[in-house]
Request: fold
Amino acid sequence: MDPYEIEFIGENRISSIIPNFTYDKIYLICGEFGPFRAGLPLNVPLWLAIMLKQKQKCRIVPPEWMDIDVLQNIKEEEKRSRFFTKMPNEHYMVEAKLILGVAAEDVPNAAEIKTIIKDIWDIRMSKLRTSMDALMKSGGSYGRLDHLTMMEINSVKPLLPSAMDELYKIKMMTKRAPTAANLNNSTFSQSGSSQNT
Amino acid sequence: MFAEKVIELLKEAERNQDTIDPFNDEKIRQILEEMQTLFKMNMNDANATSENKSLWTTVQVRHSALERNKRCLLAYLYSRMEKIKTLRWEFGSVLPPDVRELLSDDEYEWFSKYSTNLASYMRSLGQDIGYSGIDLTENLRPPKALYMEVVCAADYGKLELSDGDVVMLRKNSRHFLPAAECQTLVRQGVLKQIL
Amino acid sequence: MDEISDIVVSDEEEEITADVVLKTLQTAWQNERLAPEILPHNNDMVECMLGQIQHMERNINKLPKTDLRASIHKMELSRIKFIICNYLRTRLNKIEKYCIHIMNDEKQRIETGTNYLTLAEFKYTQEYIANMEGHLKKVVLDKMPGNMKSLEMNKMAVYPNLLTHIFLKANTSINGVVLEDLVADQDEEIDLEEGSQHILQYKPIADLVKNGKVQLV
Reply:
């Protein structure tokens, strides 16, 4: 899948906005949202939040985790742990990219927050490279990857799965090699058919 | 050497992976001729193998060359069909003349059949519930905005939008159009998105 | 506009709401995108959603063009159309690529009533194969000498690589998934805890994708 599609999936997450207009409930196929009351927060899908923000119809309420202290803790924990720690949610990177992209003024300390999220991403990516290396060295046929988000998993495609596929093929070939060698001298005796017509 | 021409043919097709070359019917004719010759030679020699064992190997080699020619010709046609298919998704059922002339008549016929088959599949979607079908060549990318700003790269003429509005697309004119309705023209290079 | 009922009645008496249909479709789309082979179709869900779209489109047309609600609904519809188009297109790509193999398997599945293709997809595959066969014959095979003319379709078949490695997330806990180790001739058993994620070969978990116990990611 391409990153746009991962972003598309992430855009279904529910986020909170404060509209500057008043409207009744809206009945979407993915659910009911509203009523919209100017100045009062409510939940809508992220794509709708972004759309309204672009039309200057709302402020976006940053998700709880988009906060320097919370993120600093996550970063420390990520550094300390050998494993991947659990992220605030499955699509933290998409959420960060979109909200900080169109609504940076709605997020206190947006610039610092961007930097910390980038740091966390970098730590996780370098961990991911190390664990891919370890996985391949251990024979590379199975691995457990808890707490990796979709965007992170997607970043190692197609490299990791195809490396594992290749390794498997090589292993199967080495296993078959001794039998294959015996066939060497008989390749020419395989029958064709044009000589019989 | 046997089966040499067919390799030239495949290399030619390999060279430009993203574009389609004119159909090389002259070379294909030569390859088919080579096959006829090889086949005749084998027919003659096969009857003689009972007396002359040394001919057996010769017959085998020619047979392999025949098989190879066949396999490679099929591969050539197959890879061209793959490319012709993408033309349907890019340009729709009507090909621009300069693209059309790269295909042989038989290939064009195949294109038309492919196109018709695809169109009737798309029309059938949702038929049971009275829906008028879906154009699967649209909505290629996840939607980001309903409208996009575009500039015309060519004189296109009138474009009628689904809400009944008609816009005149002239070279270098700028428009703010529903994203879903101008994707095809963007793909064809008539419109360029302004970012 | 606001009277749209989001209750959809399926052919059984159970009622599914539109948002559940949408979620099901989204999962089906994601799995289809990530699985090497073609998966069982979800035609009921697709048709149901098309019905919803049609209903919604009629209602949007009653709203003034500049109405904010109209653009919100339009945006949602274009998101849903993207999923449906991409889902069906992904299936067509697989159908074209693996047509001979899919057709062979599908004929057997039809006998047991476990078909993977919709009727329209089946017709499309048949026609696609016939066109390809016709073209190959007309352009080169018919001009070949003697028995070289024959076309062995099965020799031309392309197969999906079911042994490719994929990422998955377990929707429920599943015990005793057997990973065949053909290299060491020794099978290994693993348990998939609910919510856990793994990378492994597709083949041993293919059925779990089809029955919804795992989700490809």
About this structure: Chain A has two domains: 7-61, 66-178. Confidence is low (pLDDT under 50) at residues 180-197 of chain A. Chain A touches chain B through 13 residues (CB under 8 Å). DSSP finds seven helices and six strands in chain A.
